[in-house]
Amino acid sequence: KIKTLPNIEQVKEKRHQHLAKILSVSYKKPIYVEKATFQYMYDAYGNTFLDAYNNIPHVGHSHPKVVKAGQEQMAKLNTNTRYLYEILNIYAEKLLSKFPPSLSKVFFVTSGSEANDLAIRMAKKHTGHSNVMVVEHGYHGHTQADIDISDYKFNNPKGQGQKKHVVKTIIPDTYRGRFTKNDGTAGKQYAEIAINDIKTSPNKIAAFIAEPIVGCGGQIPLAKGYLKPVYEAIRAQDGICISDEVQTGFGRLGDHFWGYEAENVIPDMVVIGKPIGNGHPMAAVICTDEIADSFNTGVEFFTSFGGNPVSCAIGLAVLEVIEEENLQENARIIGNYYKEEFALLQKKFPCIGDIRGSGLFLGFDIIKDNTTEADTELAHHIKNELRERNILISTDGPADNVLKTKPPLIFTKKDVDIVIQNTKIILENHYNEK
Ligand code: PMP
Protein backbone atom coordinates (compact mmCIF):
# COMPACT_ATOMS: atom_id res chain seq x y z
CA LYS A 1 0.00 0.00 0.00
CA ILE A 2 1.43 3.37 -0.98
CA LYS A 3 1.29 5.88 1.84
CA THR A 4 -0.26 9.20 0.87
CA LEU A 5 1.70 12.11 2.25
CA PRO A 6 -0.21 14.58 4.40
CA ASN A 7 -0.92 18.00 2.99
CA ILE A 8 0.22 20.58 5.56
CA GLU A 9 -2.48 23.10 4.62
CA GLN A 10 -5.20 20.48 5.05
CA VAL A 11 -3.77 19.37 8.38
CA LYS A 12 -3.71 22.99 9.57
CA GLU A 13 -7.27 23.56 8.39
CA LYS A 14 -8.51 20.44 10.18
CA ARG A 15 -6.72 21.55 13.35
CA HIS A 16 -8.48 24.91 13.23
CA GLN A 17 -11.81 23.19 12.81
CA HIS A 18 -11.52 21.52 16.19
CA LEU A 19 -8.93 23.47 18.14
CA ALA A 20 -8.80 27.14 18.99
CA LYS A 21 -6.53 29.37 16.94
CA ILE A 22 -4.78 30.51 20.11
CA LEU A 23 -2.74 27.28 19.96
CA SER A 24 0.43 28.34 18.20
CA VAL A 25 2.63 26.34 15.85
CA SER A 26 6.39 26.78 15.62
CA TYR A 27 8.15 28.04 12.48
CA LYS A 28 6.93 29.72 9.31
CA LYS A 29 6.92 26.25 7.80
CA PRO A 30 5.42 24.01 10.51
CA ILE A 31 6.76 20.53 11.09
CA TYR A 32 4.43 17.54 10.79
CA VAL A 33 6.14 15.12 13.14
CA GLU A 34 5.60 11.42 13.09
CA LYS A 35 8.10 10.04 15.59
CA ALA A 36 11.15 10.97 17.63
CA THR A 37 14.09 9.09 19.12
CA PHE A 38 16.91 10.48 21.28
CA GLN A 39 17.91 13.90 19.83
CA TYR A 40 16.11 13.33 16.54
CA MET A 41 12.59 14.10 15.36
CA TYR A 42 11.24 12.66 12.12
CA ASP A 43 8.55 14.20 9.95
CA ALA A 44 6.00 12.48 7.76
CA TYR A 45 8.01 13.20 4.59
CA GLY A 46 11.14 11.29 5.54
CA ASN A 47 13.13 14.21 7.00
CA THR A 48 15.23 13.90 10.14
CA PHE A 49 15.53 16.93 12.41
CA LEU A 50 18.24 17.53 14.97
CA ASP A 51 16.43 18.63 18.13
CA ALA A 52 18.47 21.41 19.73
CA TYR A 53 15.43 22.82 21.44
CA ASN A 54 13.24 20.45 23.42
CA ASN A 55 14.13 20.08 27.08
CA ILE A 56 11.20 17.90 28.11
CA PRO A 57 12.64 14.74 26.48
CA HIS A 58 15.50 15.23 28.92
CA VAL A 59 17.22 11.86 28.50
CA GLY A 60 16.25 11.64 24.83
CA HIS A 61 12.96 11.25 22.97
CA SER A 62 11.40 7.81 23.57
CA HIS A 63 14.33 6.60 25.67
CA PRO A 64 13.87 2.78 25.71
CA LYS A 65 14.37 2.41 29.47
CA VAL A 66 11.76 5.07 30.23
CA VAL A 67 9.32 3.69 27.66
CA LYS A 68 9.72 0.15 29.03
CA ALA A 69 9.22 1.29 32.63
CA GLY A 70 5.95 3.00 31.66
CA GLN A 71 4.71 0.12 29.52
CA GLU A 72 5.42 -2.52 32.16
CA GLN A 73 3.80 -0.54 34.97
CA MET A 74 0.78 0.32 32.81
CA ALA A 75 0.24 -3.36 32.12
CA LYS A 76 0.42 -4.16 35.85
CA LEU A 77 -1.28 -1.45 37.86
CA ASN A 78 -2.36 2.16 37.56
CA THR A 79 -4.31 3.73 40.38
CA ASN A 80 -4.16 6.68 42.77
CA THR A 81 -2.54 7.60 46.05
CA ARG A 82 -5.53 6.53 48.15
CA TYR A 83 -4.07 3.01 47.85
CA LEU A 84 -0.72 1.86 49.14
CA TYR A 85 1.79 0.77 46.51
CA GLU A 86 5.51 0.30 46.76
CA ILE A 87 6.70 2.35 43.81
CA LEU A 88 5.36 5.61 45.27
CA ASN A 89 7.61 5.21 48.32
CA ILE A 90 10.59 4.09 46.26
CA TYR A 91 10.29 7.00 43.86
CA ALA A 92 9.64 9.62 46.56
CA GLU A 93 12.73 8.46 48.43
CA LYS A 94 14.88 8.48 45.31
CA LEU A 95 13.68 11.94 44.24
CA LEU A 96 14.12 13.45 47.71
CA SER A 97 17.67 12.04 47.85
CA LYS A 98 18.47 14.71 45.25
CA PHE A 99 17.59 17.48 47.75
CA PRO A 100 19.13 18.65 51.03
CA PRO A 101 17.62 17.09 54.21
CA SER A 102 15.48 20.17 54.98
CA LEU A 103 13.49 19.58 51.77
CA SER A 104 11.87 16.42 52.97
CA LYS A 105 8.33 16.24 51.62
CA VAL A 106 7.04 15.87 48.08
CA PHE A 107 3.60 16.49 46.56
CA PHE A 108 3.15 14.85 43.16
CA VAL A 109 0.98 16.58 40.55
CA THR A 110 0.70 16.50 36.77
CA SER A 111 2.00 19.80 35.38
CA GLY A 112 4.35 22.62 36.25
CA SER A 113 1.37 24.98 36.33
CA GLU A 114 -0.44 22.82 38.85
CA ALA A 115 2.72 22.56 40.96
CA ASN A 116 3.23 26.34 41.10
CA ASP A 117 -0.43 26.91 41.83
CA LEU A 118 -0.18 24.47 44.74
CA ALA A 119 3.11 25.97 45.96
CA ILE A 120 1.59 29.45 46.18
CA ARG A 121 -1.49 28.10 47.95
CA MET A 122 0.70 26.29 50.48
CA ALA A 123 2.92 29.33 50.98
CA LYS A 124 -0.11 31.50 51.74
CA LYS A 125 -1.45 28.89 54.15
CA HIS A 126 1.90 28.48 55.92
CA THR A 127 2.67 32.17 56.32
CA GLY A 128 -0.79 33.67 56.59
CA HIS A 129 0.47 36.40 54.25
CA SER A 130 -1.17 37.31 50.95
CA ASN A 131 1.41 38.93 48.67
CA VAL A 132 3.68 37.16 46.22
CA MET A 133 6.93 38.64 44.95
CA VAL A 134 7.89 37.77 41.38
CA VAL A 135 10.69 38.58 38.99
CA GLU A 136 10.10 40.62 35.84
CA HIS A 137 9.59 38.45 32.70
CA GLY A 138 9.08 35.30 34.80
CA TYR A 139 6.69 32.54 33.78
CA HIS A 140 5.18 30.03 36.17
CA GLY A 141 2.18 28.49 34.42
CA HIS A 142 -1.25 28.86 32.90
CA THR A 143 -3.74 28.61 35.80
CA GLN A 144 -5.26 31.90 36.94
CA ALA A 145 -3.06 31.94 40.06
CA ASP A 146 0.00 31.28 37.89
CA ILE A 147 -0.87 33.92 35.30
CA ASP A 148 -1.21 36.38 38.18
CA ILE A 149 2.42 35.73 39.16
CA SER A 150 3.82 35.52 35.60
CA ASP A 151 4.94 38.92 34.37
CA TYR A 152 5.54 37.33 30.95
CA LYS A 153 1.75 36.85 30.69
CA PHE A 154 0.08 39.54 32.81
CA ASN A 155 2.35 42.24 31.46
CA ASN A 156 1.58 41.45 27.83
CA PRO A 157 -0.23 44.46 26.28
CA LYS A 158 -3.21 42.12 25.86
CA GLY A 159 -2.76 40.49 29.27
CA GLN A 160 -4.69 40.97 32.50
CA GLY A 161 -2.29 43.40 34.14
CA GLN A 162 -0.66 43.22 37.54
CA LYS A 163 -2.88 42.22 40.45
CA LYS A 164 -2.72 44.01 43.78
CA HIS A 165 -1.26 41.06 45.68
CA VAL A 166 1.70 40.82 43.32
CA VAL A 167 4.98 42.61 43.95
CA LYS A 168 7.17 42.66 40.87
CA THR A 169 10.89 43.25 41.16
CA ILE A 170 13.18 44.02 38.22
CA ILE A 171 15.08 41.21 36.58
CA PRO A 172 18.70 41.08 37.76
CA ASP A 173 20.02 41.04 34.18
CA THR A 174 23.73 41.76 33.82
CA TYR A 175 23.66 42.10 30.04
CA ARG A 176 20.99 44.64 29.22
CA GLY A 177 20.03 45.68 32.74
CA ARG A 178 20.92 48.64 34.94
CA PHE A 179 23.86 46.89 36.65
CA THR A 180 26.26 44.74 34.66
CA LYS A 181 29.23 43.77 36.83
CA ASN A 182 28.54 40.08 37.35
CA ASP A 183 31.13 39.41 40.04
CA GLY A 184 28.58 39.78 42.81
CA THR A 185 28.46 43.57 42.55
CA ALA A 186 25.41 43.72 40.29
CA GLY A 187 23.75 40.93 42.27
CA LYS A 188 24.06 42.99 45.43
CA GLN A 189 22.77 46.13 43.70
CA TYR A 190 19.76 44.30 42.28
CA ALA A 191 19.15 42.65 45.66
CA GLU A 192 19.00 46.09 47.29
CA ILE A 193 16.20 47.03 44.91
CA ALA A 194 14.35 43.78 45.67
CA ILE A 195 14.80 44.29 49.41
CA ASN A 196 13.34 47.76 49.07
CA ASP A 197 10.39 46.23 47.18
CA ILE A 198 9.90 43.81 50.07
CA LYS A 199 10.07 46.58 52.67
CA THR A 200 7.66 48.86 50.84
CA SER A 201 5.13 46.12 50.04
CA PRO A 202 1.81 47.19 51.62
CA ASN A 203 1.20 43.62 52.81
CA LYS A 204 3.70 41.03 53.95
CA ILE A 205 5.05 38.67 51.30
CA ALA A 206 4.00 35.03 51.56
CA ALA A 207 6.38 33.82 48.88
CA PHE A 208 9.17 34.98 46.61
CA ILE A 209 9.25 32.86 43.46
CA ALA A 210 12.02 32.92 40.87
CA GLU A 211 13.57 30.77 38.17
CA PRO A 212 17.37 30.48 38.49
CA ILE A 213 17.64 31.33 34.78
CA VAL A 214 14.61 33.24 33.54
CA GLY A 215 13.65 31.30 30.40
CA CYS A 216 10.92 33.51 28.99
CA GLY A 217 13.07 36.56 29.83
CA GLY A 218 15.48 35.23 27.17
CA GLN A 219 17.55 32.74 29.20
CA ILE A 220 18.68 35.34 31.73
CA PRO A 221 20.63 33.96 34.70
CA LEU A 222 19.91 35.84 37.94
CA ALA A 223 22.96 38.00 38.69
CA LYS A 224 25.53 36.25 40.91
CA GLY A 225 25.03 36.98 44.60
CA TYR A 226 21.43 38.09 44.15
CA LEU A 227 19.43 35.26 45.69
CA LYS A 228 21.08 35.03 49.10
CA PRO A 229 20.28 38.56 50.37
CA VAL A 230 16.80 38.42 48.81
CA TYR A 231 16.08 35.07 50.52
CA GLU A 232 17.26 36.56 53.82
CA ALA A 233 14.97 39.57 53.48
CA ILE A 234 11.97 37.40 52.56
CA ARG A 235 12.59 35.17 55.56
CA ALA A 236 13.11 38.16 57.86
CA GLN A 237 9.44 39.02 57.29
CA ASP A 238 8.41 35.34 57.66
CA GLY A 239 7.93 34.65 53.96
CA ILE A 240 9.10 31.59 52.08
CA CYS A 241 11.41 31.24 49.10
CA ILE A 242 10.42 29.16 46.08
CA SER A 243 12.77 28.08 43.30
CA ASP A 244 10.93 27.28 40.07
CA GLU A 245 13.17 24.59 38.58
CA VAL A 246 10.67 23.43 35.97
CA GLN A 247 13.13 24.37 33.21
CA THR A 248 16.46 24.26 34.99
CA GLY A 249 16.29 21.09 37.07
CA PHE A 250 17.56 17.52 36.78
CA GLY A 251 21.18 18.28 35.91
CA ARG A 252 20.50 20.38 32.82
CA LEU A 253 22.71 23.20 34.10
CA GLY A 254 25.72 20.87 34.21
CA ASP A 255 27.53 22.20 37.27
CA HIS A 256 24.55 21.54 39.52
CA PHE A 257 21.54 19.25 39.69
CA TRP A 258 19.27 22.17 40.70
CA GLY A 259 19.76 25.79 39.70
CA TYR A 260 19.60 27.21 43.24
CA GLU A 261 22.69 25.21 44.22
CA ALA A 262 24.89 27.56 42.18
CA GLU A 263 24.01 30.36 44.58
CA ASN A 264 24.55 28.44 47.80
CA VAL A 265 21.01 28.91 49.00
CA ILE A 266 18.40 26.38 50.05
CA PRO A 267 14.83 27.28 49.12
CA ASP A 268 11.85 26.40 51.32
CA MET A 269 10.07 25.00 48.30
CA VAL A 270 11.19 23.75 44.91
CA VAL A 271 8.85 23.31 41.97
CA ILE A 272 9.83 20.75 39.33
CA GLY A 273 8.18 19.52 36.14
CA LYS A 274 8.83 19.19 32.39
CA PRO A 275 11.84 16.79 32.26
CA ILE A 276 10.76 14.89 35.39
CA GLY A 277 8.86 12.36 33.26
CA ASN A 278 10.72 12.82 29.95
CA GLY A 279 7.40 13.81 28.33
CA HIS A 280 4.99 11.93 30.58
CA PRO A 281 2.85 14.60 32.34
CA MET A 282 4.29 14.87 35.83
CA ALA A 283 5.43 17.60 38.22
CA ALA A 284 6.04 18.02 41.93
CA VAL A 285 6.35 20.45 44.81
CA ILE A 286 9.16 19.72 47.26
CA CYS A 287 8.99 21.45 50.64
CA THR A 288 10.00 21.38 54.28
CA ASP A 289 8.23 19.33 56.95
CA GLU A 290 6.89 22.55 58.50
CA ILE A 291 5.25 23.77 55.29
CA ALA A 292 3.75 20.31 54.67
CA ASP A 293 2.42 20.28 58.24
CA SER A 294 0.76 23.69 57.83
CA PHE A 295 -1.07 22.31 54.81
CA ASN A 296 -2.48 19.50 56.94
CA THR A 297 -5.61 21.52 57.52
CA GLY A 298 -8.17 18.73 57.72
CA VAL A 299 -9.30 19.43 54.16
CA GLU A 300 -7.96 16.57 52.06
CA PHE A 301 -5.38 17.21 49.37
CA PHE A 302 -6.00 14.85 46.47
CA THR A 303 -5.23 14.70 42.78
CA SER A 304 -6.46 11.85 40.58
CA PHE A 305 -3.21 11.37 38.72
CA GLY A 306 -0.40 12.86 40.82
CA GLY A 307 1.94 10.13 42.04
CA ASN A 308 0.19 7.32 40.17
CA PRO A 309 2.25 4.13 39.80
CA VAL A 310 2.90 4.62 36.08
CA SER A 311 4.22 8.14 36.65
CA CYS A 312 6.37 6.91 39.53
CA ALA A 313 7.87 4.13 37.39
CA ILE A 314 8.63 6.61 34.62
CA GLY A 315 10.07 9.23 36.99
CA LEU A 316 12.27 6.61 38.62
CA ALA A 317 13.56 5.43 35.24
CA VAL A 318 14.40 9.04 34.27
CA LEU A 319 16.47 9.52 37.44
CA GLU A 320 18.25 6.21 36.84
CA VAL A 321 19.09 7.09 33.24
CA ILE A 322 20.47 10.51 34.28
CA GLU A 323 22.83 8.67 36.66
CA GLU A 324 23.67 5.67 34.45
CA GLU A 325 24.45 7.81 31.42
CA ASN A 326 26.21 10.54 33.41
CA LEU A 327 23.99 13.14 31.77
CA GLN A 328 24.61 16.02 34.17
CA GLU A 329 28.32 15.77 33.36
CA ASN A 330 27.51 15.53 29.65
CA ALA A 331 25.40 18.69 29.95
CA ARG A 332 28.39 20.46 31.54
CA ILE A 333 30.95 19.33 28.94
CA ILE A 334 28.77 19.76 25.86
CA GLY A 335 27.27 23.01 27.18
CA ASN A 336 30.73 24.51 27.66
CA TYR A 337 31.78 23.37 24.20
CA TYR A 338 28.57 24.86 22.73
CA LYS A 339 29.32 28.23 24.38
CA GLU A 340 32.96 28.18 23.25
CA GLU A 341 31.99 27.42 19.68
CA PHE A 342 29.34 30.12 19.68
CA ALA A 343 31.91 32.55 21.08
CA LEU A 344 34.03 31.85 17.98
CA LEU A 345 31.05 32.79 15.82
CA GLN A 346 30.58 35.91 17.94
CA LYS A 347 34.09 37.05 16.96
CA LYS A 348 33.09 36.90 13.30
CA PHE A 349 29.55 38.19 13.49
CA PRO A 350 28.73 41.40 15.43
CA CYS A 351 25.04 40.43 15.59
CA ILE A 352 25.77 37.95 18.39
CA GLY A 353 25.52 40.11 21.47
CA ASP A 354 25.58 37.82 24.44
CA ILE A 355 26.11 34.13 25.06
CA ARG A 356 24.65 33.04 28.35
CA GLY A 357 23.22 30.25 30.43
CA SER A 358 24.67 27.10 31.86
CA GLY A 359 25.08 23.50 30.71
CA LEU A 360 22.51 22.73 28.05
CA PHE A 361 20.26 25.68 28.88
CA LEU A 362 21.64 28.46 26.71
CA GLY A 363 20.64 31.71 25.07
CA PHE A 364 22.32 33.60 22.25
CA ASP A 365 21.21 37.22 22.17
CA ILE A 366 20.86 38.54 18.60
CA ILE A 367 21.41 42.29 18.29
CA LYS A 368 21.73 45.09 15.75
CA ASP A 369 25.49 45.04 15.07
CA ASN A 370 27.62 46.28 17.97
CA THR A 371 24.73 47.63 20.05
CA THR A 372 22.57 45.96 22.69
CA GLU A 373 19.44 46.64 20.66
CA ALA A 374 17.46 43.46 19.95
CA ASP A 375 17.30 42.24 16.34
CA THR A 376 14.11 40.21 16.39
CA GLU A 377 13.91 39.90 12.64
CA LEU A 378 17.38 38.42 12.33
CA ALA A 379 16.80 36.02 15.25
CA HIS A 380 13.64 34.77 13.53
CA HIS A 381 15.51 34.51 10.25
CA ILE A 382 18.20 32.34 11.88
CA LYS A 383 15.58 30.17 13.59
CA ASN A 384 13.60 29.62 10.38
CA GLU A 385 16.71 29.06 8.26
CA LEU A 386 17.95 26.48 10.76
CA ARG A 387 14.58 24.79 10.47
CA GLU A 388 15.05 24.72 6.67
CA ARG A 389 18.30 22.95 7.43
CA ASN A 390 16.53 20.44 9.70
CA ILE A 391 17.77 21.90 12.97
CA LEU A 392 15.30 22.82 15.69
CA ILE A 393 15.96 25.85 17.86
CA SER A 394 13.63 28.57 19.18
CA THR A 395 13.52 32.24 20.14
CA ASP A 396 12.34 33.93 23.32
CA GLY A 397 12.71 37.02 25.50
CA PRO A 398 10.66 40.22 25.70
CA ALA A 399 11.83 41.17 22.19
CA ASP A 400 11.84 37.52 21.05
CA ASN A 401 15.41 37.97 19.79
CA VAL A 402 17.21 35.37 21.90
CA LEU A 403 18.03 32.05 20.26
CA LYS A 404 17.04 29.50 22.84
CA THR A 405 18.68 26.10 22.88
CA LYS A 406 18.04 23.42 25.50
CA PRO A 407 18.41 20.04 23.81
CA PRO A 408 18.05 16.57 25.34
CA LEU A 409 21.06 16.00 27.61
CA ILE A 410 22.45 13.29 25.32
CA PHE A 411 23.47 16.01 22.85
CA THR A 412 27.01 15.45 21.49
CA LYS A 413 29.88 17.65 20.26
CA LYS A 414 29.05 16.50 16.75
CA ASP A 415 25.48 17.79 17.22
CA VAL A 416 26.86 21.13 18.41
CA ASP A 417 29.12 21.25 15.34
CA ILE A 418 26.08 20.79 13.10
CA VAL A 419 24.27 23.72 14.78
CA ILE A 420 27.38 25.91 14.62
CA GLN A 421 28.29 25.12 10.99
CA ASN A 422 24.77 25.83 9.80
CA THR A 423 24.41 29.02 11.86
CA LYS A 424 27.71 30.16 10.37
CA ILE A 425 26.50 29.61 6.80
CA ILE A 426 23.21 31.39 7.55
CA LEU A 427 25.05 34.38 9.00
CA GLU A 428 27.61 34.48 6.18
CA ASN A 429 24.76 34.57 3.69
CA HIS A 430 23.04 37.24 5.74
CA TYR A 431 26.09 39.52 5.80
CA ASN A 432 26.84 38.88 2.11
CA GLU A 433 23.32 39.98 1.20
CA LYS A 434 23.51 43.07 3.39
N1 PMP B 1 7.43 27.17 35.31
C1 PMP B 1 8.29 27.41 34.31
C2 PMP B 1 9.60 28.07 34.61
C3 PMP B 1 7.97 27.04 33.00
O1 PMP B 1 8.83 27.28 32.01
C4 PMP B 1 6.73 26.41 32.75
C5 PMP B 1 6.33 25.97 31.36
N2 PMP B 1 6.91 26.60 30.30
C6 PMP B 1 5.86 26.20 33.82
C7 PMP B 1 6.25 26.57 35.08
C8 PMP B 1 4.51 25.57 33.61
O2 PMP B 1 4.63 24.21 33.38
P1 PMP B 1 3.53 23.41 32.53
O3 PMP B 1 3.59 23.89 31.13
O4 PMP B 1 3.96 21.96 32.71
O5 PMP B 1 2.21 23.64 33.18
TrEMBL record:
The keyword Phosphoprotein does not apply. Its cofactor is pyridoxal 5'-phosphate. It comes from the Bacteria. One of its GO terms (molecular function) is transaminase activity. The keyword Transferase applies. Keywords: Aminotransferase, Pyridoxal phosphate, Transferase. Belongs to the class-III pyridoxal-phosphate-dependent aminotransferase family. This is Aminotransferase class III-fold pyridoxal phosphate-dependent enzyme. It comes from Flavobacterium jumunjinense. The chain holds residues 325 to 758 of 758 of the full protein.
